[in-house]
Amino acid sequence: MKVTIESKKGLKTTLKVFVDKKIINEKIEAKLIELSGTVNIKGFRPGKVPVEVLKRQFGKAIYGEVLEKVLKETSAKALEEKKIKTAGQPKLDLKTYGEGKDLNYTLEIDELPTIKLQSLENIKFTEYEIRVTEEETRKKIEDISKNQSNFKDKKENEIAENGDLVVFDYNATVENKKFEEGEGKNTQVVLGKDLFIKGFDKQLLGVKKNQEKEVVATLPNNYPKKEFANKKANFKCKILNIKKPESIKIDDDFAKNLGAKDLNNLKELVTKQIQSQYKMNLDALTKEKILNQIEKLYEIELPNNLVQQELAIITHGLKKEDMEKNKKESEKIAKKRIKIGLILNEFGEKNNLKVGEQELKNEIEKQVQTMPNQQKQVLEYYQKNPSATASLRGSIYEEKIINLIKEKSKKTKKIISIKEAEELIKEQHQAHTHSEDKEAKESKKSKKTLKSSKKFKKIRKK
After folding, report:
1. d(Cα 83, Cα 351) in Å, to the nearest integer?
2. Which of 176, 181, 282, 347 has a Cα at 20 to 30 A from 108?
3. Rounded average pLDDT over 387-405
């Protein structure tokens, strides 16, 4: 095999590969001999079929199989010999080939750029810790208690008021005719929440236990039986019980019902939950600032095919006019993502970072724990979707790289309040929105300038 560089321009390289026909013939002969020991042909004993007979009958198929294998092996060796890292699949172009002929082909390659890693000592980031006050923890626990269902039976002569839970059976008709799903037993409605059918629970205000009440309500437009959607229905209701909300005592028993050991343990858990909630957003903010600093350290020529692939992902599902409208911003985002991805990958390779199978299993287990009732579905999802597993592996790999960068950078620890955390997150959100608006305005301005330019040209022609 002989490999030469035919042309090189930027990250585009074309390799010329020559494979002597002797190598291909030897592989064909070996395949024919292997075949002769297994194939059965009428008129010949098993294992005694002449090679020439096999060649006449199976020659083209064997050549095709051998050619495919030779191309795969030689193209890999060619890239290895020239120490080329490809960005995507090379484009192969057969020049000369055929039985009894030398093999000549070219490989058109988009190369990955060479990245010389720079020092991280000037990269700065802040690691935030959230300070949660006792008052904030207490308020959160009170909010949790308000969402716990706790009702106490009202006396028989007491009427239903907003906030009360009304339990009833009903039979409904549309135009005096019964319909499927027009009957309910032990239906429960909390008055004032309007969660059953719009306007329904208002008509139950003032009812008493054992009373019969007729309610008229319009069935929603998404009602399962389309023929009854948006039609008025008469509900004959039998009130079975009325319960009033009862405040829950926040004590050790309340804490145990929520899975904590006692009230103090619940306070600890809620405090950690609040910290975790904000820390996730702040860590994302910190990561973004680190990546922005790293991106500015490098000037890299980017493989166009990778940029186009990323652009296709960004614009997937957009209408053609929206794609054109946001083309400049989409290309900017695509280039930034590819650039950062290449830099991070170089960090990972140079520091020999890998994601082990156990790390992958541990991450899947974390997800299972957040969805305890869907363990089987989560496991099946990753088993049946290799792309999802690959994506998860990529996320773990990126996280390991970011952690390595943090170790080598300048860290500042800062303890902040919930209010300060919210301000930081809000500022970041506004910065993103402002950036998007600015790009949109610039795009609009450039179109206006272009329009004026065209108008000016028309005047000059006159």
Report:
1. 20
2. 347
3. 94
State whether residue 10 is helix, strand or coil. Answer: coil
Q: pTM of the full predicted structure?
A: 0.67
What would the mean pLDDT of 417-429 be, rounded to a whole number? 91
SS3 16: strand
- C-alpha 343/C-alpha 113 separation (Å) is 10
Those residues whose C-beta lies under 8 Å from the C-beta of residue 294, and which sit 6 or more positions away, are 120, 123, 340, 343, 405
Sequence-separated (6 or more) residues with CB below 8 Å from residue 280: none
d(CA 310, CA 208): 64
Higher pLDDT, 373 or 453: 373
The first and second tokens of residue 56, run together, are 């006449």
Q: How far is CA 123 from the centre of its chain?
A: 28
Distance CA 79, CA 15 (A): 9
Distance separating alpha carbons of residues 19 and 107, to the nearest angstrom = 13
Least confident stretch, 67-71, 120-124, 221-225, 390-394: 221-225
Nearest to 398 by CA among 274, 283, 245: 283
Q: If you count DSSP H runs as helices and E runs as strands, how many of each does the chain have, helices first?
A: 12, 11
Do 151-245 and 2-110 have the same topology in CATH? no
Residue 451's pLDDT band (cuts 50, 70, 90): very low
Task: Return the CATH class of domain 151-245.
Answer: alpha beta
Both tokens of 181, joined, read 């799903």
Residue 130: pLDDT above 60?
yes
Q: What is the 3-state secondary structure (H, E, C) of 152-203?
A: EECCCCCCCCCCCEEEEEEEEEECCEEEEEEEEEEEEEECCCCCCCCCCHHH
| CATH top-level class of 263-450 | mainly alpha
Q: How far apart are CA 112 and CA 182, in angstroms?
A: 65
**C-alpha closest to that of 338 among 114, 87, 109:** 87
Token pair 């309040």: residue: 417
Report the mean per-residue pLDDT for the chain. 88
Q: Residue 184 and residue 6: Cα distance in Å, rounded? A: 79
In the chain, where the domains are located: 2-110, 151-245, 263-450
**Burial classification of residue 234, based on how many CB atoms lie within 10 Å of its CB (0-12 exposed, 13-18 middle, 19 or more buried):** middle
The two structure tokens encoding residue 422: 């919210």
- For domain 2-110, the CATH superfamily is Trigger factor ribosome-binding domain (3.30.70.1050)
Strand order across the 2-9 sheet? 2-9, 12-19, 103-110, 91-96
SS3 3: strand
SS (H, E, C) 381-411: HHHHCHHHHHHHHHHHHHHHHHHHHHHHCEE
Cα–Cα distance for residue pair 332/314, rounded to 1 Å: 11
